[in-house]
Amino acid sequence: MSDFIPSIGLEVHVQLKTRTKMFCDCPAHEEGEPNTSVCPVCLGLPGAMPVINREAIRRTVKTGLMIGSTISLRSTFDRKNYFYPDMSKNYQITQQAAPLCMGGAVSIEVAGRTRTIRVNHIHQEEDVAKSTHMENSTEIDFGRAGTPLMELVTEPDMASPDEAMAFLLALKEMLIYAGISDCNLELGHVRCDVNSSLRPVGTDKLGVKCEIKNMNTFKGIHRALTYELERQAAVLRSGGTLIQETRRWDDEAGVTLPMRSKEYAHDYRYFPEPDLPPVVLDEATVEAWRAELPELPVARRARFVAAYGLPEYDAGVLVADRAIADYYEAVATTSGRFKAASNWVMGELLRALGERGLGIAEARVTPEALAELIALVEAKTIHMTAAKEVFQVLFDEGGSPSAVVERLGLAQVSDGAAMEEFAAQAIAANAGVADDFRNGKEAALKFLVGQVMKLSRGKANPQRAAEALRRRLAT
Predict the structure, then answer these.
(1) pLDDT in tens, 276-293
(2) What is the average pLDDT across 66-89?
(3) Second label for 52, Cα 20 to 30 Å away, from 41, 83, 398, 416?
(4) Contact present, 63 and 175 (Cβ < 8 Å)
């Protein structure tokens, strides 16, 4: 698309990880029967009075702090009035005039290039009911209505579907790290409205904006943007005119389709929410919440590379999951073997977790046990094949690596007399190979070491075996 410059902005809606809903005591994220986790407040019945969920405010402010927003010490709620089946009271409580967080930015990296995506603001609101569209009807579950929702609105700084995807992944990673949201896309924890436009190369004025509503998969957002930008370019190249409109994504057909024209802004008749007081914070509270923030993924990846000497790939894999990163650090600092710890966590541990469909918290092998296992390998008490066998026992049963080694009889044989006997037997049984080595074929020694390992049932120390073989072959 060399003749046009894309401009992409996102409106990201995130369900917050709270116990109760935004303005009532109904359980949030309840996965029970439809329309059971409801009350007069979230159903909007006459006379019901909302009460602000402090935990939702805390989590939204912490998100703003993570991305460098200015936190509003006084913010207010408004009513956004509209009629739609998923909002039973015909208005949504949101923040329009005075949001909680203003400004901020998220850094992304695409194709080796770092870019900064500005955030306009973050505001607090309540989610609507869940609509399931059938062939001839629509089912509404008000159990989701009132769930605390954070909306993050970016500036139109992204210039490609890849950049939009990178932004969403970076944001998701931060939110999960800080415990703001589980960000489970399958459960609708993250949804997105996507705004895009094109302008001719050499111009600064943004083109006509088209909005794609209610996207709930990152892959779908990438596909929808790819299609939509090509559609807009085709219209402009043919001399046509784009109109400001809202479109929807048909994932099966792979196209965006018009929903409604937005030549003029909707009149939502915003006005201050009369049943809620302003949210008033103080600097001490904000700073206390800032102190709760974890080390962010970008900083942690850089530290893993600098402090532990890990390749960037290793750091990226380990830091992608906070619990895995915490586990790795415990193993690394206990063992002092930073790369070996990375190899074991990325290799055996993640493999075993994946095969069993388990999370790191369910693994019975503790960081201390894995550190001890690494030490046994480094000390050549056991070889790597035996170590993997010990790891599997630890993963299934837990316990001490040393105890498992002793119970299974896996300790390497390094005793001089025993090694000399194994070497003598291997040479006697393979005289031809022994002569090959004496005649200069170095590879023959590897075969003989393998025979020693077989005679010792895998317990011989390979290095000691090679030394014993060389001594005997030299005589």
Answers:
(1) 999 999 999 999 999 999
(2) 94
(3) 83
(4) yes
Class of CATH domain 416-473: mainly alpha
For the chain, the structural domain boundaries read 4-287, 295-408, 416-473
Question: In terms of C-beta distances under 8 Å and separation of at least 24 residues, what long-range contacts does 188-191 make, across chains too?
Answer: 188/15, 188/130, 188/144, 188/216, 189/14, 189/15, 190/12, 190/13, 190/14, 190/15, 190/216, 191/12, 191/13, 191/215, 191/216
pLDDT of amino acid 266: 64
Cβ atoms 42, 24 nearer than 8 A: yes
Report which of residues 412 and 426 the model is more confident about. 426
Written in H, E and C, the secondary structure of the chain is: CCCEEEEEEEEEEEECCCCECCCCCCECCCCCCCCCCCCHHHHCCCCCCCCCCHHHHHHHHHHHHHCCCEECCEECCEEEECCCCCCCCCEEEECCCCCCEECCEEEEEECCEEEEEEEEEEEEEECCCEEEECCCCEEEECCCCCCEEEEEEECCCECCHHHHHHHHHHHHHHHHHCCCCCCCHHHCCEEEEEEEEEEECCCCCCCCCEEEEEECCHHHHHHHHHHHHHHHHHHHHCCCCCCCEEEEEECCCCEEEEEEECCCCCCCCCEECCCCCCEECCHHHHHHHHHCCCCCHHHHHHHHHHHHCCCHHHHHHHHCCHHHHHHHHHHHHHHCCHHHHHHHHHHHHHHHHHHHCCCHHHCCCCHHHHHHHHHHHHCCCCCHHHHHHHHHHHHHHCCCHHHHHHHHCCCCECCHHHHHHHHHHHHHHCHHHHHHHHCCCCHHHHHHHHHHHHHCCCCECHHHHHHHHHHHHCC
Q: Are strands 91-94 and 113-126 parallel, antiparallel or unpaired?
A: unpaired
Lowest mean pLDDT among 26-30, 101-105, 165-169, 225-229: 26-30
* CA-CA-CA-CA torsion sign (282, 283, 287, 288): negative
